[in-house]
Amino acid sequence: MKIGILSDTHDRLDRTISAVALLQEAGAEALIHCGDLTGPDIVSACGVLPSWFVFGNNDDDWPMLRLTMKLSNAVSLEWGGEIALVGKRIAVTHGHLHKDMRRLLTARPDYLLSGHSHLLADEMHDGVRRINPGALYRADRFTVALLDLTTDDLKFLDVPR
User: What is the domain extent for residue 119?
Assistant: First the structure.
């Protein structure tokens, strides 16, 4: 199973729609958004595939975001949570709250997905693969990530400006 990973879209709707299309073309079967959506239109744009979301430090209208997630059949992981797909445990948080990072890492998931820094990353720490897909706002390069949970292959995809 291939999952698309996005973060820090900051209400850049056209760029998010392009990113989602790019991920779909690359074979993504589900999407995980690591926070800083900013507006409900981003939820709707990602809702074309099964989707999970966490809140980031720029997500203020939680009631509207939650409602849009519900209407899009998406899952809100609030400030951070864990999901299981094809036998893999995937923890997700935005990354700005260290207590959530510590809490999620304590459970020793296979992956920890986060955003916040606007910098792509793929690092292994104490047996947990930590992935940041980059950002679609305020970054030198706009990127998302595609993770194949079966082969553990990760690709960063450039989203056109």
Answer: 2-158
CATH code at 93? 3.60.21.10
The CB density around residue 158, as the number of other CB atoms within 10 Å, is: 12
CA angle 148, 143, 108 (to 5 degrees): 45
Give the sign of the dihedral formed by CA 32, CA 34, CA 35, CA 36: negative
The total number of structural domains in the chain stands at 1
- Spatial contact of 22 and 134, defined as CB atoms under 8 Å apart: no
What would you measure as the largest C-alpha separation in the chain, in angstroms? 38
Beta bridge partners of 129: 111, 124
pLDDT tens, residue by residue, 42-74: 999 999 999 999 999 999 898 899 999 999 999
C-beta separation of 56 from 78 below 8 A = no
